[in-house]
Amino acid sequence: MEPSGAPRVLILDDNRVGREGIASLLQGRRDISVVATTADRELALAMAEKHSIDVVLAGASVMEKEGPVLARELLRRSGGGAVKVVAIGLGERSWEISKAVEAGVAGYLTKSASVADLIGMVRAVTQPKEVWVVEGRAERRGTDGCGSGNA
Predict the structure, then answer these.
(1) pTM for this entry
(2) Does residue 33 sit in helix, strand or coil?
(3) Which end of the chain has the smaller Cβ count within 10 Å, N or C?
(4) Which pLDDT tens digit goes with each residue over 27-83?
(5) Burial 4-26 (b: 16+ CB within 10 A, else e)
């Protein structure tokens, strides 16, 4: 994280409007630092290393196409967990959430999540040993994806 304690965020989405929209929602906040945005997986991996990224927000289409591979590679390159991957805009089916968690995703925002949920998620995933899922409300799960409670 930056000296101010603000998590350093990279936004990876092949949808330019989505990528720029999320960046504009987060930029200007003192508690979150948007460092880079990209549509390219390889560039995202390089940027995550170069800029010591804390959180990667990965769009639905990126996660659907290569989410498990991307999440595992980011985790491997960061030494096993320094970078937290948050999948955004995916469905609300439990198997989709389980698949993302198995890949090492630290957070999961469903299509019904709000801007406040997004901001809360960026803050939450920097906390150790938790998996966060937002289905219209914040829900905290243990590292095995089981159990829940309002955050």
Answers:
(1) 0.80
(2) strand
(3) N
(4) 988 899 999 999 998 999 999 888 889 999 998 777 777 777 888 888 777 766 688
(5) eebbbbbbbbeeeebbeebbeeb
Q: Nearest CA to 47 among 37, 57, 59?
A: 37
- As a whole number of angstroms, the distance between CA 68 and CA 62 comes to 10
Rounded to whole angstroms, the Cα distance separating 32 from 2 reads 9
Sign for the CA dihedral angle at 11, 44, 72, 9 comes to negative
Which of 127, 130, 129, 75 has its CA nearest to residue 108?
130
Instruction: Look at the block and give the residue holding tokens 């829940």.
Output: 148
Q: Using CA atoms, how far apart are residues 69 and 82, in angstroms rounded to an integer? A: 17
Say how many C-beta atoms besides its own lie within 10 A of residue 99's C-beta.
Answer: 18
Q: Could you give the 3-state DSSP secondary structure of residue 89?
A: strand
Is 133 exposed, middle or buried, given 0-12, 13-18 or 19+ CB atoms closer than 10 A?
Answer: buried
Contact 92, 133 (CB under 8 A): no
